[in-house]
């Protein structure tokens, strides 16, 4: 049985980005492992626009009643949700921009975090509808933030994943990349990725 991994990259630095390097290492190791297939989506090369009211509104119109424009707008979200559901593992390669995630990645989450599709509201709060999936976060950072109050990125990502029902999340940090710790941090992250790929 093949395990399918969806790898999302969102670095504006392209091949120079350290999160891209981590994603590439994951893809290389995955290619060496039998039974693990990888799909890559570059959210910078295939940038999504910021979510607007017209697109949000299109989701709320029954499919059979949508105009041609509304169908086209809804298809953007539908396709991304179907792609997510077609995979077993979601791998997020994420740089840290001003203590947050890249806007390109936020635009993706804005399309897949959809009430009635990937979560629903209940009397006791939202309930995730994406079951049986796990996620891996590959976090590349110039400074040292993990475990501190400044790391608002990790809780944000886990919160959005959890909203969909993805609560099994592994995080690989490559930190201090601009603090003279680059080589050691990258090597440590690569070793952690190797161990993760072996377990998938």
TrEMBL record:
<dbReference type="InterPro" id="IPR003680">
    <property type="entry name" value="Flavodoxin_fold"/>
</dbReference>
<keyword id="KW-0285">Flavoprotein</keyword>
<feature type="domain" description="Flavodoxin-like fold">
    <location>
        <begin position="4"/>
        <end position="195"/>
    </location>
</feature>
<comment type="subunit">
    <text>Homodimer.</text>
</comment>
<dbReference type="GO" id="GO:0016652">
    <property type="term" value="F:oxidoreductase activity, acting on NAD(P)H as acceptor"/>
</dbReference>
<dbReference type="Pfam" id="PF02525">
    <property type="entry name" value="Flavodoxin_2"/>
</dbReference>
<comment type="function">
    <text>Also exhibits azoreductase activity. Catalyzes the reductive cleavage of the azo bond in aromatic azo compounds to the corresponding amines.</text>
</comment>
<keyword id="KW-0288">FMN</keyword>
<keyword id="KW-0520">NAD</keyword>
<protein>
    <recommendedName>
        <fullName>FMN dependent NADH:quinone oxidoreductase</fullName>
        <ecNumber>1.6.5.-</ecNumber>
        <ecNumber>1.7.1.17</ecNumber>
    </recommendedName>
</protein>
<dbReference type="GO" id="GO:0010181">
    <property type="term" value="F:FMN binding"/>
</dbReference>
<comment type="function">
    <text>Quinone reductase that provides resistance to thiol-specific stress caused by electrophilic quinones.</text>
</comment>
<dbReference type="InterPro" id="IPR029039">
    <property type="entry name" value="Flavoprotein-like_sf"/>
</dbReference>
<comment type="similarity">
    <text>Belongs to the azoreductase type 1 family.</text>
</comment>
<dbReference type="GO" id="GO:0009055">
    <property type="term" value="F:electron transfer activity"/>
</dbReference>
<dbReference type="GO" id="GO:0016655">
    <property type="term" value="F:oxidoreductase activity, acting on NAD(P)H, quinone or similar compound as acceptor"/>
</dbReference>
<keyword id="KW-0560">Oxidoreductase</keyword>
<dbReference type="InterPro" id="IPR023048">
    <property type="entry name" value="NADH:quinone_OxRdtase_FMN_depd"/>
</dbReference>
<feature type="binding site">
    <location>
        <position position="11"/>
    </location>
    <ligand>
        <name>FMN</name>
    </ligand>
</feature>
<dbReference type="InterPro" id="IPR050104">
    <property type="entry name" value="FMN-dep_NADH:Q_OxRdtase_AzoR1"/>
</dbReference>
């Amino acid at each position: 049985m093949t395990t399918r991994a969806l790898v999302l990259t969102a670095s504006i630095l392209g091949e120079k980005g350290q999160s891209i390097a981590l994603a590439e290492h994951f893809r290389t190791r995955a290619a060496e492992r039998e039974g693990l297939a990888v799909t890559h989506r570059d959210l910078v090369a295939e940038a999504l626009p910021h979510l607007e009211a017209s697109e949000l509104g299109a989701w709320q119109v029954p499919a059979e009643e949508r105009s041609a424009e509304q169908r086209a707008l809804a298809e953007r979200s539908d396709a991304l949700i179907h792609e997510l559901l077609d995979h077993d593992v979601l791998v997020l390669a994420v740089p840290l921009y001003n203590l947050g995630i890249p806007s390109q990645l936020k635009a993706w989450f804005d399309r897949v975090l959809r009430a009635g599709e990937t979560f629903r509201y209940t009397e006791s709060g939202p309930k995730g509808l994406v079951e049986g999936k796990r996620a891996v976060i590959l976090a590349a950072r110039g400074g040292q933030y993990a475990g501190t109050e400044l790391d608002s990125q990790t809780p944000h990502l886990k919160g959005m994943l959890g909203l969909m029902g993805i609560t099994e999340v592994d995080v690989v940090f490559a930190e201090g990349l601009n603090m003279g710790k680059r080589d050691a941090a990258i090597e440590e992250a690569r070793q952690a990725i190797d161990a993760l790929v072996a377990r998938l």
